[in-house]
Amino acid sequence: MASLATHKSRNQQGIRSLENGVRLYQALHSLRRPASLTELAKLSRMSPAKVHRYCVSLIRTGLMQLDGRGLYGVGPYGLQLSAPDIAIEHAIAFSVSALHELVRETGETCFLSRWGQRGPVIIKVEDAPKPISIRPTTEGDLPLTNSATGRVFAAYMDKEKLARLTELEFESQRRNEKVAQSEVAVRKRAFERHLSETRKRCIARTTGERYLGLVSFSVPIFDRNGHVILALTSFGMATTFPSAWDSNVARALRSCAMSLTQRIGGLWPGPASNRQ
């Protein structure tokens, strides 16, 4: 008959393959970026063939995922388990890697933004493959009221926070542009219509409101709580950039944002969603 000590030891025995898989996931998670099979093999001190088998199982569980470049990243379920600051770092890494393909598909300059101090701030720009293209400045926060990127964040923002920020912005416009209060009231009503349209379509558009002759589209990327954490934006001159809601650029942006939201375990809202 086995001794009590032996019985306890047997009860404490684990599943080595499970432990190896968890350690592999932890190694990838700590990188905070996608990694190659070779890199994961070195980190885990296992052969590439063995790591590949573990990766297949981890992908099936949603803890890992494989991107179009053949790199392994934390999966949708893995990101749901992550702390918010770590999850957004992974989301940024996925989104940055998607920019190149998005520009190739649309033929237009695209950029990625996240929330700054009082508005979105550009963190990565991918230029269009054109002899001459417009490049946005990456300094300072973008306005909420007359930029497509700003409207994307504003459309799903807490109402009290949005009211404070937009009041400051409209007051700044009144002073700097020397416009009458009646004109400010007109702009406020127009802004509300733009937000309603953004929530309806999950994409924002400007047609010269900020810069005459410039058209832009922006789409949100949502986290697991349905909050906008990033935005993808494309823009160009009205003479060559398509402004229709169903244009190739608009469709490509929206499809990319939905895919990225899914990849990070985010929650894509319904057509009439409004963050309260």
Annotated CATH homologous superfamily of the largest domain: GAF domain
Strands, total number: 7
Element order: H for helix, E for strand: HHHHEEHHEEHHHEEEH
Using the CA coordinates, give the radius of gyration.
23 Å
How can the largest sheet be summarized? 5 strands, antiparallel
Report the span from N to C terminus: 65 Å
CATH T-level topology of the largest domain: Beta-Lactamase
Q: Trace the largest sheet across and list its strands.
A: 4-3-7-6-5
Shape: elongated
Percentage of residues in strands:
15-25%
Helix content: 40-55%
CATH C-level class of the largest domain is Alpha Beta
Unreliable spans are: 4-9, 272-276
- Sheet/helix structural class: alpha+beta
In round numbers, the mean pLDDT is: 87
Helix tally? 10
Q: How many discrete structural domains?
A: 2
Q: In CATH terms, what is the architecture of the largest domain? A: 2-Layer Sandwich
Concise overview:
With 276 residues, the protein is α+β, with helices and mostly antiparallel strands. It has helices at 4-11, 16-31, 37-44, 48-61, 76-80, 84-106, 148-155, 159-177, 181-201, 248-263; strands at residues 64-66, 72-74, 110-115, 120-126, 204-207, 214-222, 228-237. The protein is built from 10 helices and 7 strands.
How would you describe this protein?
This protein has helices at residues 4-11, 16-31, 37-44, 48-61, 76-80, 84-106, 148-155, 159-177, 181-201, 248-263; strands at residues 64-66, 72-74, 110-115, 120-126, 204-207, 214-222, 228-237. It has 276 residues and is an alpha+beta fold. The chain has a 5-stranded antiparallel sheet, with helices on both faces. A two-stranded antiparallel sheet has the order 1-2. Strand 5 and strand 6 form a beta hairpin. Residues 4-9 and 272-276 have low confidence and may be disordered.
